[in-house]
Design a protein that fits this description.
single chain; two-stranded antiparallel sheet; binds NADP nicotinamide-adenine-dinucleotide phosphate; eight-stranded parallel sheet; 38% helix; 11 helices; alpha/beta; 322 residues
């Protein structure tokens, strides 16, 4: 495994981050395709044994049970000082007032609930899951800064939003001397490259690390077009993200994977790892082979020609995943 600094911080992270949205109690929350604790633990252990030290979850994943499962497994299998735990705040955790969003009240409440579920006294990377148009940016940024100063959070990050929103938040923090975001977790893969227009150049300019979510387009880049799995059949959000025109990219991934004699997932992840802005793709793993492939992708060198061929059939997409 390779380790790199997250953006312009001194924090070491593995070049693969394990996406823990895959782990959670299936009948809690909105992801009925998740793996329960017994199925999740061996995969988390395998990831650690392969050198993965970076784990991403969220308060909303499976109604908090992802944080519970991941926190317990990491307590059992890892040394807290070595690993980097990332979680998120913004999504709705309860019906009624103040059950979602980025108000000072919601952030202060949700960090304590996440810490309790994770069974740790600090989160390494606390990310806002989306932009909250109903809360002043100053209120959110000061609350996040206060969490850092209180020792509950080491670094702060953000996830999918428009570049102007991210820029506004970042410069608001700078103007006030508050903690700034060190990372952007956004939707970026061979099928969805809209982030190359504004967000990725902004992150490069600001020295912000990029953590692509759904780097395999939720599995579409790993198999023949139209093939369904247990997850894809029930992944309602995933079904909104991609277009028929993406098939040509998947076919190119297939051809290059055959030429290289490796599984398609390795080619698709290697392409992301070749992008200068990308720190660590956040890979979803529901089987041991998924972790094996993700780790192998770190060492797979693509030629300039292969990179050009992978990019050539791209079809522009409407903004998706904000
Ligand atoms: N910030 C956000 O808004 C946001 C949104 C989405 C995700 N995320 C984060 O990103 C993480 C990853 O998301 P994701 O699960 O959608 O990512 P993904 O890596 O694009 O998709 C994972 C799926 O791809 C298939 N797969 C993975 N490796 C494979 C391999 N080697 N061979 C064949 N198939 C393979 C599996 O599908 P099957 O299970 O169907 O076989 C797996 O469940 C999440 O866990 C979460 O931490 C964040």
């Amino acid at each position: 495994m390779q380790y790199v600094k997250l953006g312009s911080t001194g924090l070491d992270v593995s070049r693969i981050c394990l996406g823990c949205m895959t782990y959670g109690v299936p009948d809690r929350g909105t992801h009925e395709w998740t793996l329960d604790e017994d199925a999740a633990r061996p995969l988390i252990r395998q990831a650690l044994e392969a050198g993965i030290t970076f784990f991403d979850t969220a308060n909303v994943y499976s109604d908090g049970t992802s944080e519970e499962i991941v926190g317990k497994a990491l307590r059992d299998f890892a040394r807290r000082d070595e690993i980097v735990i990332a979680t998120k705040v913004h999504g709705r955790m309860r019906p009624g007032p103040n059950g979602a969003g980025l108000s000072r009240k919601a952030i202060m409440t949700e960090i304590d609930h996440s810490l309790a579920r994770l069974g740790t006294d600090y989160v390494d990377l606390y990310q806002i899951h989306r932009f909250d148009p109903d809360t002043p940016v100053e209120e959110t940024m000061e609350a996040l800064h206060d969490l850092v100063k209180a020792g509950k959070v080491r670094y702060i990050g953000a996830s999918s939003m428009y570049a102007w929103q991210f820029s506004k938040m970042q410069y608001t923090a700078l103007l006030h001397g508050w903690t700034t975001f060190v990372s952007m977790q956004n939707h970026y893969n061979l099928l969805y490259r809209e982030e190359e227009r504004e967000m990725l150049p902004l992150c490069a300019d600001l020295g912000v690390g990029v953590l692509p979510w759904s780097p395999l387009a939720r599995g579409r880049l790993t198999r023949d077009w139209g093939t369904t799995t247990g997850r894809s059949a029930t992944d309602a959000f995933g079904s909104t993200l991609y277009l028929e025109g993406d098939r040509a990219v998947v076919e190119t991934v297939t051809r290059i994977a055959q030429e290289r004699g490796v599984p398609r997932a390795q080619v698709a992840l290697a392409w992301l790892l070749h992008q200068d802005t990308v720190t660590a793709p956040i890979v979803g793993a529901s089987k041991p082979q998924h972790i094996t492939d993700a780790v192998a992708a770190v060492e797979l060198r693509l030629t300039e020609k292969q990179i050009e061929e992978l990019q050539a059939p791209y079809t522009p997409h409407p903004v998706a995943g904000h």
